[in-house]
Amino acid sequence: MNTPPSVPIGALAPLTRPGWVEAGQHLLAGLELAVHEVNDAGGIGGRSLELVVRDTAADPARAEAAVEELAGLGVVALAGEYHSVVARAAAARADALGLPFLCSSAVLDALTDEPTDRVARLAPAQSHGWRIYADFLLDAGHRRIAVAAQPSVYWASGTRLLREHLATRGGGVVELDLRVLTPEAVCDEVAGQSATALLLLTGHPEPAVSLVQAVRADRRLADVVIGAPAGQPEFAEWAALLGDDGAAIPFLRYMPERLDPLGARVEKALHERLAHAPSFVAFEGYDTITVLAEVLRSYGTDRASVAASWPHVRVEGTRGQISFTRVPGVGVWQWAWPPVQVVDRDPADPDRLRIV
């Protein structure tokens, strides 16, 4: 008896440096768990799902080449990616090749230069999440915010969003350029500018870890709140490197306050697969395959049918019902919105996350 051909899905994730490797591992764990469960349940009309994985290493050019290769290999759709700038390059290439792309984690609003029907996204747009974060800072009484930033379209976009939103309520942003400032010099600037919060718009682990250590060691900054809206403290490596110093640093996390039975079951399975608590990125990976599997079952396995399905999707994911819509300023089909929390690591137990 002949085995029917598999249904191949291309998957992009940062699995080597300078990519955020732990995020890539969590993303891939979610993708792989969902593929395993889909296949155990009979696959797609009796055909198994096959995940064809490529490492982007946070390199846009490498991602573009991977998309070209995967398209040539006949994948029916593209999934994944964590880094926004990399996802943007992948989305542009996928769109040009007629390859549908369900982006799991990247949040940059302008994921594509022009509106497209081929690309959809699960993660919230940066403008949505970072405005929530700005409101959190304002509600906590912070009006003068320092941002220590590296050069990047993503960090520049975040700085602009923060500045514009804070200004509506009398707040302001002091920009600190990490190309020219050491961690100690950043501390001097924060103290001199009388900022009450310092946001880390930086890569992980460095220079983020060195910045946290410098601020924690500076007595002038004992009352300064360190923040990381991009989610650096989400992962176990952060706690391992910083210990108690890594606690009480608020960040954005795309999870509900309580998981429903599906989410709880998936959390347990991901924990077993990863050997530690799964991040929200792992849930994004799982939900990506959940959506694609439903699309492939209901609308067909050719690329045109997948791309045409986005406005019709209604799928129960681990964090709520997923559907896609058009959002002003966002050129792709968008889940509006997944749940958004501001959380930190509990100073009493840095291994525990608490909603703040």
Share in β-strands: 15-25%
Task: Give the topology string: H per helix, E per strand.
Answer: EHEHEHEEHEHEHEHEHEHHHEEEEE
Mean pLDDT: 97
Largest sheet: 6 strands, parallel
Distance between the termini: 57 Å
Rg calc: 20 Å
What overall geometry do the principal axes of the alpha carbons give?
globular
- The counted number of beta strands is 15
Low-confidence stretches: none
Q: Specify the number of helices.
A: 11
Q: In order across it, which strands form the biggest sheet? A: 2-1-3-4-5-13
Please estimate the helix content: 40-55%
Structural class: alpha/beta
What's the structural blueprint in terms of helices and strands?
Elements: E1 7-13, H1 21-40, E2 49-55, H2 60-73, E3 77-80, H3 84-97, E4 101-103, E5 119-121, H4 126-139, E6 144-149, H5 153-167, E7 172-177, H6 183-192, E8 197-201, H7 208-217, E9 225-227, H8 236-242, E10 251-253, H9 261-274, H10 280-299, H11 303-309, E11 315-317, E12 320-322, E13 333-334, E14 341-346, E15 349-355
Parallel strand pairs: 1-2, 1-3, 3-4, 4-5, 5-13, 6-7, 6-8, 8-9
Antiparallel strand pairs: 10-14, 11-12, 14-15
Structural descriptors:
356 residues; alpha/beta; 15 strands; 41% helix; 19% strand; globular
